[in-house]
Amino acid sequence: MGYDNVVTTTAWSPGPGCHGGCGVKLYIKNGKVVKVEGDENHPFSQGRACPRLLALTQYMYHPDRITYPLKRVGARGEGKFERITWDEALDTVEEKFSNIKAEYGPESVLFCQGTGRDIGGPISFLAYSYGSPNWIQLGLAGHSCYTPRLGAMMATHGDYAVLDAGQFSEKRYADPEYEVPKVIIIWGQNPMPGCPDGFFGHWIVDCMKRGSKLIVVDPRWTWFASRSEKFLQIRPGTDGALAMGMINVIISEDLYDQEFVKNWTEGFDDLKRRAAEYPPQKVAAITWIPEADIIAAARLYASAKPAAIQWGVPIDKCPEGSTVAQAIAHLWCLTGNLDVPGGNVIARPAYGVTTYPFSTQEMHELYGEEFVRRLNEKRIGAKEFAMVRNFRGWAQPDLAVKQMLTGDPYPIKACWIQTSNVLGGQAADTALHYEALKKMEFVVVADLFHNPTTMAVADIVLPVASIAEKESFRSWWVPLQVIVPAVEVGECRSDWEINLELAKRFNPELAKRYGSVKDLINDRLKPCGLTYDELKAQGGWIMPPENSASRPYRRYEKGLLRPDGKPGFRTPTGKVEFASKSYEEWGLDSLPYYSEPPESEVRTPEVYKKYPLVMVTGRRSSVYFHSEHRMIPWLRECDPYPIVEIHPSVAEQVGIDDGEWVVIENDRGSIKRKAKVTPIVHPKVISVPHGWWLPEEDGCEPNLFGIWDINCNKLVHIGPGAKSGYGGGAYKTALVRVKKANGAVE
Ligand SMILES: Nc1nc2c(c(=O)[nH]1)N[C@H]1C(S)=C(S)[C@@H](COP(=O)(O)OP(=O)(O)OC[C@H]3O[C@@H](n4cnc5c(=O)[nH]c(N)nc54)[C@H](O)[C@@H]3O)O[C@H]1N2
Ligand SMILES: Nc1nc2c(c(=O)[nH]1)N[C@H]1C(S)=C(S)[C@@H](COP(=O)(O)OP(=O)(O)OC[C@H]3O[C@@H](n4cnc5c(=O)[nH]c(N)nc54)[C@H](O)[C@@H]3O)O[C@H]1N2
Ligand code: SF4
Ligand SMILES: [Mo]
Fold first, then answer.
1. Which pLDDT score is estimated for 743?
2. Rounded distance, CA 540 to CA 481, Å?
């Protein structure tokens, strides 16, 4: 088949849905994308691509895709929508939001996003242009995704760090400075299905092929666990105890890096005292991991040089996620594996280019202190949690849903939902969020498909462009790269286009600065010295320059990390802080510690007696991104049913066979799932994939595509579960029981 054109671009949602970054080639014929391939010349992915990317054509041209703006014409939940023009849609939003601002203040509108897709820039830009401080992941209990880990790293060494798979150099593994980690701990992550947090999952496989040995910490035998030297089958939510136990072994056996600790850290003696409270025997009882395995894993990790840790969202979802993450970050600092080849390297975006104001510091630079002060006064959760106030510009989701219901301390009247399926995937306690959203006077959803959230509550639905249809850029660590439009589909517009147009209506000053999306992108790209078109013309991506703050290694020795140019780290003391000054300032314990999950055999024995299984939800599927893709035929075929993974011993007790439908329940309700009986889960744990709704079913109320029957988040309670306001969403630790379903469900 001949093609008219091949467009080289970057994968970063919508389409695969992911946190993105790989290079992709789009083959065009007669104005349509007809084939998708990985770009073999791209330094991030070298031609590799996941199933969701390869199925892009089925996603873009799916008959259910929303391709023009819609307004609701029936009652909410009736599913009656009518086509309208973009002008009418945007005029309606402008009028409603302006009225709400006049009557209640701009803080009465929540700007709700989902995970880190190409949305943080456009949505914060719109929220701040309108004047609302409430930019939020609505429903994400405890804000338990990435933020606790980011906060802990900032507090410990003043920067983010990531496993070094050579990703900061275009030569990758062939770079003479690079070394492969001798040992990798994969800690509560399954990096392959979804390239989480800007990390290409197969890089771990690349490292394994070059000799890396694995330690895997997971309640479930994953592909990586089956290939590991040590598999630590942990009780969900107890990672904080394991990390403290490993620190205990490393310190008491003198396995830490004495030079690094002496020269570059402070608070070691405090940490030593705290870690003494966690002898391996005690940790074994907490975590279900045999004492000998804890000791062996600590020795294996600490005696390998270099070694690295790759961790995932279950860390954030542990009780007090930000202290669990702190303990794990201490491990790579204690062992001198920070910012060395093959260790955990400091990650900064190439040239310092960011898509959106990420930290309070950047917010100050961009919007001015006065504006930020006003935002912080009204931001939900900023009063209650110093970390919410001082660390990132997010509102606190658990307090937000309560405020939507009570109107206290001020009313919430509308939601702008863009890249989030609150009721179908993101929100814990689905019923509570349903009730709260129903109270809103006005709800806008910008999405590509209908889903339970649009059906239940949207008044206006705006059709959004996929990765193949938009102009954008990506600056999540490296490379700095552009997203290039190849085709158009219906009247779909990119999130940037939609939000810039509306932002100008709320803040006419912006019209003078940014005529088009390209002007805005060029403004953000300035630090790299290239415009969007120039970057596109030279291949679409660029790596950070040598000897710069955004290029490893050992930048703390070279004075590349601190604003004052001195050696050291960007922390209050300039050192790695084992006892964190920032945590102390935020009213938190400066040292890491362990705390029990909110529901557990230890903390709530009476609940445990009734509900003896720990429900771990949300292990990622290669063919789905959260609640997306269930309507894509190639993908659904691979993973057709909402399942639950159950250990054979539990199946026997319940009296069910593989493939039978079961009921999973607790005091919050019940759901049905098809049992996959398998020894890969711990006998006291069941694993329940999340984000399930059935696009083939009736989307109107009360059915809402079947969510009340199958969405596991019904059984998960909200928080806040953490003293910092960040972490502890009980997505991995709710207690449940399982019984045989009566009658056929199929
Ligand atoms: N039970 C359970 N629940 C969980 C989790 C878990 O582990 N267990 N994990 C939680 C975590 S970590 C997270 S981050 C949240 C994520 O939750 P969400 O980010 O809300 O995830 P999705 O359900 O994929 O919803 C995304 C919606 O946005 C649309 N979309 C995708 N890309 C774009 C885009 O670029 N622009 C626009 N406008 N729309 C787009 C999709 O069609 C979809 O309807 O879920 C949480 N929910
Ligand atoms: N295909 C696909 N890719 C995705 C996503 C998706 O929905 N689909 N979601 C994206 C998002 S927003 C995120 S946050 C990331 C998340 O991706 P990951 O960070 O990999 O998180 P999970 O898949 O929830 O869990 C990873 C592993 O941790 C184990 N685990 C569960 N509970 C615990 C625990 O308490 N302790 C330990 N040590 N292990 C535990 C699970 O069994 C699983 O094997 O993936 C991103 N990428
Ligand atoms: S999940 Fe990985 S392979 Fe798939 S599109 Fe995203 S970055 Fe590329
Ligand atoms: Mo996430």
1. 56
2. 5
